[in-house]
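Let us practice reading a record.
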Amino acid sequence: MHIAFFGSSLVSSYWNGAATYYRGLLRALADRGHRITFFEPDAFDRQAHRDMPDPSWCKVEVYQPNTLACERMLRQARVADLVVKASGVGVLDEFLEQAVLELQRPNRLVAFCDVDAPATLERVTNDPADPFRSLIPRYDAIFTYGGGDPVVRAYRAMGARLCRPIYNALDPATHFPVAPDPKFAADLSFLGNRLPDREQRVRDFFLQPAAHLPNLTFLLGGAGWPGSHLPANVRTIGHVGTGDHNAFNCSAKAVLNIARDSMARSGFSPATRVFEAAGAGACTITDAWEGIEEFFIPDEEILVAPDGDAVCSILEGLDAERAARIGAAARRAALHRHTYAIRAVAVEETLEGQKIGSVAG
């Protein structure tokens, strides 16, 4: 099967948290014999912050962020068996959401890949005139990378023909244990860009515990944080390229996962970072959200904190031996139950029986 995929960026994780998801899932599909072309706009300075070359398993087409260039890419996508438009491309999203549907044919499916389904659904629920709402029933399939049954039910209620979560996962070839790097050393590390729908939760779950535990060290990675008012024991390092993620995860006693507001409310939305950390054998502390136990066993494979006070309590009682034990258990669980190879099979099963010929190759 030839897949044409319109997304934010495959080759740059700069202000682009979905990059790891795209890479892991599309590489796994390529390993199963599918041909993939990824279309991404030259926007938000991402091409200047590439953290990988064009991969051998995927053709990357970078286009200028204008309608004319988009139309040229859409003409190229006509040769595909499956055309996918991801949410949050960041450039001409409304145009692309409509335009890809014009490519539908009996032998060509068009799917929507929602990398922030809870936020999308909140948006279209609050605004019945949102242009995307009327397009939902026209897509052959809606894939989401989180949300569980609540998101599936919500999309089906809006007329989706088919909706299936394809969760974040681990690519064992990309995320694995490495030697600690002193520049990433800390008692607790958090990696995430500064975004409006995450900032308050970062303050509650990361900065507040740092202020209450002045004898511990905290490391804050991600774009947008320098210059904000931070406790003295919090060190910021700015954007962390994906090539450094393993060292980042392996160099702290524990790493913190903080869901964005909409995903925390929806639940069943494990972030990419959770699986990256698990692959590196890191001990993860996560904020509480419904469905965690569907992915990792609390207190054995992951530590769960309902609020900032709980983060403090966990850190005060966490020694290096227990942290290492939890991290090792998380890695075993991810390798056994949550790899992108497994997710790729789920994509094929979802498309099986659709009018695209052979899904498996």
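A brief commentary: The first strand starts at residue 2 and ends at 6.
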